[in-house]
């Protein structure tokens, strides 16, 4: 109870001589320093709000405009063309103010209005410039004169040293495609998946929709696009993520892995110490908006709004829909270890604890032998099961008293940490199987040792390995990957470890112990926990996972063949799927729409007429020249679709929003109903490396992450995530379900390997035979 006594700032006792007041100087100092830290953050936020608010100008430019106007006035010229005199006439000032002072004040007011007008004009110009997307459709390496002029203008109007959110007010809104174009592109996308009779029926449904209900729904959608910053994102978050009533574990959450071939330290507490410290350093940069905005071609900004809810965020269950709650900066994290939950403060006297001090605190939790409270050990299963039972249990058993206080502590934490007693990573005599187990552990764990509602949870394993599990509604994977790249690089290359594998630095042994959370779990609540665990366990057991690192070649060799690496992998996936199932399927590839304000994702339908023609030709034994020509056409088509999706010309988000409008209006559309019910049997996603400068692939090639993955979207389909790393590696994460007799993650992985080799052999006939070294590298454990 030492931490409880330290939390009390003063104590008093009544004695015969009066009241004896005892002040706790340590607690008062803590309160004072916490207040100072809070005010510092408020001042920084205010300063950044001003800088972002006037961007692409700067606050100092106001002074320049004021001086310029005053200087012209003293040269007996009037740049305001009489406006300054008009302002002076209507100034509500005291008669005691001299005429000269009134003139100066009027000039300052005019200068301020002129400055604001210039900012508005620059921002409007930048917004119009960023609406130009023809540059994306030009051949790589060949930039037109128009695009060169455009790039120069964008850089002129972009200002200097932008903060993370500086571009937000200048980003264009996501355009609403015409119904005619969307329907046309949709019919083209499903042609290879339907026979003539099915296609003719769908064409009639589409024509009927386009000529009648479609225009009515489009009118409402255009109205929303005029009013809202983005006509898709809020509905996408609510209806795709928050209104889902099935478990978010496996079905929605995704994971990210640690370094593949190296473990910086084998000490669990030390790894947690460095990593947690690095994550809070990132949060500090995020709060100060010091993270650079993501620029395409070093000039075109992407939307950064998804970063806002990265920390201090939790998904709250509801009976009809969940909500995402975001709080102000928490000074602690929630930690789970062997069935107990702890509150670990990472700030002491207003400063962030050093990595060594965090390691010391984590070790205290690991050494704590206290048993979990009754019903506490598997409490996290509530977040892994169905949402409605969890919402009802939360309202009934966690809405007051000690349970509410403990639950608030978890939900309001900066993020969640699990100290896992298992060992994971690429290890042992069967590294392939160990990677599969590692993926499943990060995706679902034991179904009760993660808090799946938190924006993200970090898992630290007994052997020093780590990983993340992230909730999907608040942001997409690239945003989470940006944080994880920073944490991995800072952990290994900046903070480092001493010769014994511990964090560097000294420890303040007077730090208060981590606070164990207390619970009073009723038998009825325990029954609900057991039911949620049963649902989650059945789902987890059904997941079949296969992770492998393909090292025979990478994007370096693919680019020499003058092919987009992403298109190359997508064609390999089409070929692998056809070889396994002897048919084609609706294929989902995630693309981003962050060129627009509050943009999230769009779907690239990778199975096209061109890709299916190529696969049939290759499997039918056509001549190599014919197959190469068809492959080029298919990859070019894929790139065209990807560019269309990125620039607002996608299909699926538009159709989704039309469907939502139809539901609001209470009208049925057979066309939209059928479109939205089609299963994605092949769901794919590429996670790009965003901060290449943080890693040295030449001198430290072993410091590479294995990427991350997600669960299968369809019960009879595959989820495939791939991570193109460096010039010679592609990591694949394949998921499916054991309950489907037609899917097998390992067999599909074998087909992908074969397809990759066959394609590179087709494009470069003189390539060497595939090597047998794949996945044979042992893991290197670093102690320092």
From TrEMBL:
UniProt catalytic activity: (R)-carnitine + hexadecanoyl-CoA = O-hexadecanoyl-(R)-carnitine + CoA
Q: Does the keyword Lipid metabolism apply?
A: yes
Keyword line:
Acyltransferase, Fatty acid metabolism, Lipid metabolism, Membrane, Mitochondrion, Transferase, Transmembrane, Transmembrane helix, Transport
Q: Which Gene3D superfamilies match?
A: 6.10.250.1760, Chloramphenicol acetyltransferase-like domain, Choline/Carnitine o-acyltransferase, domain 2
Which molecular function GO terms apply here?
carnitine O-palmitoyltransferase activity
Q: What is its main location?
A: mitochondrion
Please give the name of this protein: carnitine O-palmitoyltransferase
- Species for this entry: Acanthochromis polyacanthus (spiny chromis)
**Taxon lineage:** Eukaryota, Metazoa, Chordata, Craniata, Vertebrata
């Amino acid at each position: 109870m030492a931490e409880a006594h330290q939390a009390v700032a003063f104590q008093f006792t009544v004695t015969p001589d009066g009241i004896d007041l005892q002040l706790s100087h340590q607690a008062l100092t803590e309160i004072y320093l916490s207040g100072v830290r809070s005010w510092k953050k408020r001042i920084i936020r205010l300063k950044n709000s001003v800088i972002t608010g006037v961007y692409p100008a700067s606050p100092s430019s106001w002074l320049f405009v004021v001086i310029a106007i005053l200087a012209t006035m003293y040269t007996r010229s009037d740049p305001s063309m009489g406006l300054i005199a008009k302002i002076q006439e209507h100034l509500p000032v005291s008669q005691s103010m001299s005429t000269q002072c009134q003139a100066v004040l009027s000039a300052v007011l005019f200068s301020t209005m002129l400055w604001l007008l210039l900012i508005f004009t620059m921002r409007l110009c930048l917004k119009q410039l960023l609406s130009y997307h023809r540059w994306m459709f030009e051949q790589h390496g060949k930039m037109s004169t128009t695009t060169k002029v455009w790039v120069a203008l964008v850089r002129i109007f972009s200002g200097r040293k932008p903060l993370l959110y500086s571009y937000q007010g200048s980003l264009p809104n996501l355009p609403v495609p015409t119904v005619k174009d969307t329907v046309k592109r949709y019919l083209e996308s499903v042609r290879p998946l339907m026979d003539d009779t099915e296609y003719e029926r769908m064409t009639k449904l589409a024509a009927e929709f386009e000529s009648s209900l479609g225009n009515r729904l489009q009118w409402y959608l255009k109205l929303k696009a005029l009013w809202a910053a983005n006509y898709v994102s809020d509905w996408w978050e609510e209806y795709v993520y928050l209104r889902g009533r099935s478990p978010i574990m496996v079905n929605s959450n995704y994971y990210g892995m640690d370094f593949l071939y190296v473990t910086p330290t084998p000490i669990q507490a030390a790894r947690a110490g460095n990593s947690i410290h690095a994550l809070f350093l990132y949060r500090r940069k995020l709060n100060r908006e010091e993270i650079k905005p993501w620029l395409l071609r070093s000039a075109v900004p992407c939307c950064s709004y998804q970063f806002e809810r990265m920390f201090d965020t939790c998904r709250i269950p509801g009976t009809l829909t969940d909500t995402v709650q975001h709080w102000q900066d928490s000074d602690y994290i929630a930690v789970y270890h062997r069935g107990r939950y702890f509150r670990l403060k990472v700030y002491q006297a207003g400063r962030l604890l050093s990595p060594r001090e965090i390691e010391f605190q984590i070790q205290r939790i690991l050494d704590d032998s206290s048993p979990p409270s009754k019903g506490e050990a598997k409490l996290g299963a509530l977040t892994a099961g169905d949402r409605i039972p969890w919402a009802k249990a939360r309202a009934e058993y966690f809405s007051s008293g000690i349970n509410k206080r403990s639950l608030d502590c978890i939900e309001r934490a900066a993020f969640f940490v699990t100290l896992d007693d298992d060992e994971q990573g690429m290890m042992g005599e069967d590294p392939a199987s160990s990677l599969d187990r590692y993926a499943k552990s990060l995706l679902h764990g034991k179904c009760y040792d993660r808090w799946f509602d938190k924006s993200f949870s970090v898992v630290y394993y007994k052997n020093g390995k780590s990983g993340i599990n992230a909730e999907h509604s608040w942001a997409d994977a690239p945003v989470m990957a940006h944080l994880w790249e920073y944490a991995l690089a800072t952990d290994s290359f900046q903070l480092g470890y001493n010769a014994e594998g511990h964090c560097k630095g000294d420890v303040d042994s007077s730090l208060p112990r981590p606070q164990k959370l207390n619970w009073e779990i009723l038998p009825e609540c325990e029954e609900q926990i057991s039911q949620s665990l049963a649902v989650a366990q059945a789902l987890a057991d059904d997941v079949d996972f296969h992770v492998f690192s393909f090292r025979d070649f990478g994007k370096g060799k693919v680019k020499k063949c003058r092919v987009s690496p992403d298109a190359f992998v997508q064609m390999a996936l089409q070929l692998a799927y056809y070889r396994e199932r002897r048919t084609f399927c609706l294929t989902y590839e995630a693309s981003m729409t962050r060129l627009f304000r509050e943009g999230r994702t769009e779907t690239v339908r990778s199975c096209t007429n061109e890709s299916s023609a190529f696969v049939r030709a290759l499997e039918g034994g056509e001549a190599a020249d014919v197959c190469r020509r068809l492959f080029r056409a298919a990859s070019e088509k894929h790139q065209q679709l990807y560019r269309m999706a990125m620039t607002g010309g996608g299909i699926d988000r538009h159709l989704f929003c039309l469907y939502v409008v139809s539901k609001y209006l209470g009208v049925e559309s057979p066309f939209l109903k059928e479109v939205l019910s089609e299963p994605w049997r092949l769901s794919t996603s590429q996670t790009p490396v965003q901060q290449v400068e943080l890693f040295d692939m030449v001198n430290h090639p072993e410091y590479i992450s294995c990427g991350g993955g997600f669960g299968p979207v369809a019960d009879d389909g595959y989820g495939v995530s791939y991570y193109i790393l460096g010039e010679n590696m592609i990591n694949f994460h394949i998921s499916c379900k054991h309950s489907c007799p037609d899917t097998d993650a390992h067999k599909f992985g074998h087909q992908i390997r074969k397809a990759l080799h066959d394609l590179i052999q087709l494009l470069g006939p003189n390539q060497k035979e595939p090597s047998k070294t794949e996945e044979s590298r042992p893991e290197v454990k670093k102690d320092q």
